[in-house]
Design brief:
It is built from 4 helices and 7 strands. It has helices at residues 13-23, 30-33, 82-96, 111-119; strands at 4-7, 42-49, 52-62, 65-73, 101-107, 123-133, 136-145. The chain has a 7-stranded mixed β-sheet with strand order 1-2-3-4-5-7-6, with helices on both faces.
Length: 148
């Protein structure tokens, strides 16, 4: 069965919340994810195989600038191109919606994620000191121009 990338639905939320708990020290609870379904500023995409959520990406757009808030891939299916496919699908959808840029924060120590983002055309625009809490760490702020 092939992987598909689809818009997030209510049925995906429990698995997304479970992935949040598996992947992040400060996970978003279901109660924080559910409102994203009806937030006009939000766009969340989910990579699925059948009924199983393999990963997801979430963003918010204000005017013509978007921010990637969440990206996670289940540990057992990492390094299979799912994260790249999610980001590429998000970029495509945001371009269609008229967004001109996509910004994100990434842990300064997360070399695999930084390498992926740079390979997709993101570049550094800043640093947020002590942005993450568990453990305390700076975030690199990366940006991709979508109108090029």
């Amino acid at each position: 069965m092939d992987n598909q990338i689809v818009p997030m639905t209510r049925a995906h939320v429990p698995q997304i919340a479970a992935l949040e708990r598996r992947c992040f020290p400060d996970p978003w609870p279901e109660a924080a994810i559910v409102p994203e379904l009806t937030n006009e500023l939000s766009l969340w995409l989910v990579a699925v195989r059948g009924e199983t959520v393999l990963g997801y990406v979430g963003s918010q757009t204000v005017m013509d600038e978007s921010d990637m808030m969440n990206l996670a891939v289940a540990p057992e299916v990492r390094r299979q191109g799912i994260g790249r496919a999610l980001i590429q699908a998000l970029i495509s959808a945001l371009r269609e919606r008229g967004s001109n840029s996509l910004t994100l924060e990434v842990r300064a120590s997360n070399d695999p994620a930084i390498a992926l983002y740079e390979a997709l055309g993101f570049y550094g625009v800043g640093r947020r000191t002590n942005y993450y809490f568990h453990p305390k760490e700076d975030a690199l702020v990366l940006r991709k121009d979508l109108n090029l």
